[in-house]
């Protein structure tokens, strides 16, 4: 991991000593990349949100973020930013704060009518989830669609709650991978097919279960498989 990447230190997302004091996430120059910054409630990435429960804006070392209470807070966005992508990188910067064992906190779902038009059952989706035990969590990344159904979950690779982390999942045309702070968590061979248009939920699964206790600062969606050195960075 080079010095531009995210490292966990103390209670916040930090840089190496060579870049002290920087606390603003900056967009990269990757063509076709979509950035969602969670610095407001009424619109994310220029798209209107449907707000449920009472998520709140909080100040963090990275700027504003949206805090979810783990009970009934959620944002719904009428967009699937990785629709049509045959390869992808799905990144997020978030802070898990403990709570329930199973939390499904970022969900991209192909619209059921799109699946039906393609002769496929509903449920084509991307997910970021976590599992929590005490003061530790581990990542669960998941993709499902026609001909593929793959989870990447590794309970032995645990991380402390209450800190900011960067997570990513990528697909390069052959291999599906997941990362925490740029460190590979695991991988699997997948025959992935691009998903169709749909919507997203943040703070819970799209059917309003498994609510998230923590905060989300940013997400990035790229129609190519980025190497670790091109993941979200501070500048």
Walk me through this protein's architecture.
The chain has one helix spanning 112-117; strands spanning 7-9, 12-14, 34-37, 43-44, 47-52, 56-60, 63-69, 74-77, 88-96, 102-110, 125-133, 136-145, 148-153, 159-160, 165-171, 175-180, 183-189, 198-202, 213-222. It has 235 residues and is mostly beta strands. The protein is globular and about 40 Å long. 41% of the residues are buried.
Through-space gap between termini: 15 Å
Q: Any idea of the CATH class?
A: Mainly Beta
Main beta sheet: strand number and arrangement?
9 strands, antiparallel
The CATH architecture comes to Sandwich
Pick out the low-confidence regions. Answer: 1-25
How confident is the prediction overall: mean pLDDT? 88
From the spread of the alpha carbons, the general shape counts as globular
Computed Rg: 16 Å
Structural class designation: mainly beta
**Helix fraction bin:** under 10%
């Amino acid at each position: 991991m080079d010095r531009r990447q995210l490292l966990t230190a103390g209670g916040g997302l930090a840089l190496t000593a060579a870049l002290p004091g920087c606390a603003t996430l900056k967009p990269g120059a990757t063509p076709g990349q979509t950035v969602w910054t969670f610095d407001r409630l009424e619109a994310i990435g220029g798209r209107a949100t449907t707000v449920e429960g009472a998520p709140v804006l909080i100040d963090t070392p990275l700027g504003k973020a949206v805090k979810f209470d783990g009970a009934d807070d959620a944002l719904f966005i009428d967009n699937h930013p990785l629709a049509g992508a045959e390869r992808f990188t799905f990144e997020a910067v978030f802070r898990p704060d403990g709570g329930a064992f199973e939390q499904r906190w970022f969900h991209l779902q192909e619209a059921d009518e799109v699946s039906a038009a393609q002769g496929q059952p509903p449920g084509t989706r991307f997910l970021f989830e976590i599992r929590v035990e005490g003061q530790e969590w581990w990542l669960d990344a998941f993709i499902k669609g026609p001909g593929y159904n793959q989870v990447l979950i590794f309970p032995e690779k645990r991380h402390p709650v209450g800190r900011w982390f960067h997570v990513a999942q990528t697909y390069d045309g052959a291999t599906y991978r997941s990362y925490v702070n740029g460190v590979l968590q695991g991988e699997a061979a997948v025959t992935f097919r691009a998903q169709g248009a749909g919507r997203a939920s943040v703070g819970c699964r799209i059917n309003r279960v498994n609510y998230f206790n923590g905060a989300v600062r940013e997400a990035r969606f790229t129609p190519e498989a980025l190497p670790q050195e091109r993941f979200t960075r501070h500048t």
